[in-house]
């Protein structure tokens, strides 16, 4: 999978994409991520990328031309499954959409400013708009990092233990059961006996029960 991220703040993406599973996926050659600086496509000495809004509303608006030039350049090189704009008024991100996207070959993700992007970009160039929740972030970059992390970890082969991504919370519509490690007792707080029993049938049964109980109690809306 190839992911092209278009941003005015590419540095904001470096750390979240440069560690852990996302880094390993890139090192394994399963995912290629390119972050493009929209400013490189701005015109003039100042590489202008934003301008005053028509109508006089406050704040600067990201101009269509630099973004159009960059998107068309990329589209000329390959076919994209989707050209996504990160925005709080987009489709709310959830695991089914993440799973679908993990099968994409090429995807473009545009990060901008919700109030500050020329609307013609959204009308004519964008094929999908995604939000990561009902609150407002300063820009799309952190949201894009969340989306990329969620998608990359379910790309086949990225997580070596095949079952591990499939037992995540939400993959079966349920929250995950609790997990414990050594020591068996700390401060008098004991690990549940069943997990020390060595009886795999009993352990699976307990885990399913816990997943169901936690979902009913914490996220009844998922059931
Ligand atoms: Cl995708 N962008 C911004 N700016 N704010 C958000 C968001 C996206 N999702 C939730 N809030």
Briefly characterize the structure.
Helix content is 33%, strand content 19%.
Describe the structure in your own words.
- With 223 residues, this protein is α/β, with parallel strands linked by helices.
- It folds into two domains: 2-152, Alpha/beta knot; 169-222, tRNA(m1g37)methyltransferase, domain 2 (Trp Operon Repressor, Chain A).
- 33% of the residues lie in helices and 19% in strands.
- It is built from seven helices and nine strands, in the order βααβββαβαβαβαββα.
- Strand 3 and strand 4 (60-62) form a beta hairpin.
- It is elongated, with a radius of gyration of 22 Å.
- The mean pLDDT is 95.
- It binds 6-chloroguanine.
- The site of 6-chloroguanine has 14 residues, from strand 5 and strand 7.
CATH class of the largest domain: Alpha Beta
CATH architecture of the largest domain: 3-Layer(aba) Sandwich
The helix/strand class is alpha/beta
Looking at the structure, the CATH topology of the largest domain is Alpha/beta knot
Portion in helices:
25-40%
What portion of the residues fall into strands of 2 or more residues?
15-25%
Low-confidence stretches: none
Bound molecules: 6-chloroguanine
